[in-house]
């Protein structure tokens, strides 16, 4: 077994343990392997161990890896988790399965228009600035309901709003780690109370995946715990 494969096993075990603590079934959380800066070969190793969903931050880097892994395309899920500029929406709409970083209507509209008719609907999350001032990316929580309702009205044959994503301020204390995750869960609940049907909470990374699972994460984005530290 390679290092990546044994780390992947460790992460899966952490997720299983967290699900047990949270009284949730282990299959209620999807593991997204965050592969930014990693070479295509590292993804291939993870694939050989059963990993199918990969998260990338930079569009150009992702496209290069997609080409190197084209033989696996039908089995892979590609998620964009990094910032998205409007001049990149077309390639993203054509190449990715998910986008977690939608933070304004204009981007969602362009992705929707540019999603090819032959493809399955693009699955999207709104990125929420859940820690307030600390992070510059993401929609402020108070603006999320209006944006979510507008995005949910776009044609769902092309684009489907699935939920919310956040990157909270790092914290060491598990209790502190849980606070922003809890706020994101409550925000999702409020949207569903207003009539939306969102099922995805994209939250939790290498250092806080347990806290995220305890607060209801349905997808955790894990990089260093799988691939090692990035240069
Ligand atoms: C890099 C990154 C991750 C993974 O972070 P790790 O601490 O390496 O697990 C998750 N989400 C986003 C948006 C990232 O940019």
- Second rung of CATH, namely the architecture: Alpha-Beta Barrel
Question: What fraction strand?
Answer: 15-25%
Q: Unreliable stretches, pLDDT < 50, 5 or more residues? A: none
Distance between the termini: 23 Å
Q: Secondary-structure element order, as H and E?
A: HEHEHEHEHEEHEHEHEH
CATH homologous superfamily label = Alanine racemase
> Helix proportion of residues, in percent?
40-55%
CATH class: Alpha Beta
The tally of helices reads 9
Which word captures the global form?
A: globular
Task: Write down how many β-strands occur, each being a DSSP E stretch of 2 or more residues.
Answer: 9
Q: How does this structure look, described?
A:
With 231 residues, the protein is of the alpha/beta class. It has a single domain, classed as TIM Barrel. Helices cover 41% and strands 19% of the residues. Strands 1, 2, 3, 4, 5, 6, 7, 8 and 9 form a nine-stranded parallel β-sheet that branches. Helix 4 packs across helix 5. The chain is globular and about 45 Å long. The mean pLDDT is 97. Pyridoxal-5'-phosphate binds next to strand 9 and helix 9. Pyridoxal-5'-phosphate (PLP) binds next to strand 9 and helix 9.
Question: Layout of SSEs?
Answer:
Blueprint: H1 3-21, E1 30-34, H2 40-48, E2 53-56, H3 59-68, E3 77-80, H4 89-95, E4 98-102, H5 105-114, E5 122-129, E6 139-140, H6 144-152, E7 159-166, H7 174-193, E8 200-202, H8 209-214, E9 219-222, H9 224-227
Parallel strand pairs: 1-2, 1-9, 2-3, 3-4, 4-5, 5-6, 5-7, 7-8
